[in-house]
């Protein structure tokens, strides 16, 4: 609950299809494209706060003039930092030419990022370091415009070493740390070959058809070529999201449907989903086609994306999160013995608010049913006061916790550090009747459990409730991810630690030995990718047994108030999010062979005490 997860980069792509003079005349500004790129990125800022970058390509430049520009930032507010600098450049031009914004040709010649092709990226550092060099887009430069490439994406690859081998490249230290560097080199390798056959007019469809089948991972990528061609492509399983909008003025693509709708003020049905394995390919004249680059495979769009990462302003995502909370209501009612009178409902953090509404709706449905039954049972034996008391009865909802400013745990001693962590949230006093009320608090997911134990359970216990029930709108997170979310160490997961604890308690540690031996055997045979052996760790136990152990693990020793944990079921997850069936975090059912390899390596790292990534 409230564990920080590094995750999900965001992509923004715009291709202007009209001259700059058109946008000046119709929209009143020559920087229409840049303004929209800024909005498109800001509306996805939830996807990346470690850094941002943009690239721009200008069409029809004279030989000798630069046509590909890039700016990146890892400042605390990277999007604002980039566009503030562009704004300063405009102000500098206006010092000497006050009306230059009324002259599109001059603006294009003097403002580096006033290009017809625009690519923006928001970065969460899932791989590599957080210095600015790792921010997308990456670029490859060449004297031939058609061999210049700017590339950015929302993805992780698990076979970067193999990719470098395929193109006979010995990567440097930088390339080894970045999967985008591997992807860039492979795409550029095939781009250069295609350019030899068709100078400055490479067939992008052929390039992508040769390069992308080599990538093991989930991805949405966008690329700009120096000759004015461009593309946006999605992986064959549809693991990472991609949406697009096209009219006669612009071609737009982004990671979030709601961001496009808001930025361009268009309806839901006007923004289309880019389907798995397909690419939007745009030529230098602004003509586009949607091509099937690789054959689509079983759709495994990431469900964690819908639960946790995507902006809830999208109407489909909003309804799905409501459903996630609603599905949990029956289990919660059973745990509180249907005692709504003495139960308070709340949520932590704010991202769980929509699931909370769904949970409360389920409670209200039950309460309304009880009201009707009670009133009918009275017959004529009631007074106005008695009737009013029954009709006005409501679900008790409170804002139990408020997140304070981010406290810096600058004190190094563990005891003092834990004391500081407790105060990340402020508790709302006077909301709970001590010893009488059960407190039910919902979150979108429980990953590590660290914040729960060190901060939230302690904080909630100060209110002295009769019982604390922690509810997760996601199922138990049991397995690492390798497709864009930084959850690659098994030992980090509270569900895995609970399973290990149960094995030790029941003298079943031989299971760990057997799993370890089996994985080592697969490693020797080069077969780590063939099977997820770690499933055997969880097999002896029911979901409820693991949940009970998790509740014990997140309860500090000095807290004597009962703590229970309720998780979403896999079945209800799929019922709530029917188009996002990717559930490998919860089930271990990976969509690509690289996932099995990662989970098995993660187990080896855990057993050998290596605190490193599984890929």
From TrEMBL:
Domain Glutamine amidotransferase type-2: 9-285
CDD domains: PRTases_typeI
One Gene Ontology molecular-function label: transferase activity
Keyword Transferase part of the UniProt annotation: yes
InterPro entries, per database record: GATase_2_dom (IPR017932), Ntn_hydrolases_N (IPR029055), PRTase-like (IPR029057), PRTase_dom (IPR000836)
Top-level taxon of the source organism: Bacteria
Keyword annotations: Glutamine amidotransferase, Transferase
Protein name per UniProt: Amidophosphoribosyltransferase
Organism: Sediminibacterium sp. KACHI17
UniProt lineage: Bacteria, Pseudomonadati, Bacteroidota, Chitinophagia, Chitinophagales
